[in-house]
Amino acid sequence: MYVCSCFGITEKQVREHAEAGACTPRQIASASKAGTDCGSCVRSIQSILGRGACPRREPLGTAAAEPTTTVAEPLVAQSAVVRAVATSAGLEAA
After folding, report:
1. What pLDDT is attached to residue 75?
2. Angle 42-49/25-32 helices, nearest 10 degrees?
3. Domain segments of the chain: what residues?
4. 25, 45 contact by CB (below 8 A)
5. CA distance 18 to 15
6. For residues 66 and 68, what is the distance between their CA atoms, to the nearest angstrom?
7. Coil, strand, or helix at residue 10?
8. So what CATH class is 1-54?
9. Cα gap 69→73, rounded to integer Å
């Protein structure tokens, strides 16, 4: 059955895009153009995707895992690179 008659997009195609990771009408539109012309199919796309199609984001402050590096570690490594480049160029690193 056609969901988007403007671009000839079928329900099967919408479901395939959803299985590939598209979980909002906007993402379906990016993948297939469905819903980008007259817009009359957007509600049909929403109903195909269903409620809760997108994975829920965790609230701020409830990270699943602790970071493996600190903010300072990349800066220390960058400082070492800057010193090495300055030394090889005959400059004095600050």
Report:
1. 57
2. 110
3. 1-54
4. yes
5. 5
6. 6
7. strand
8. mainly alpha
9. 6
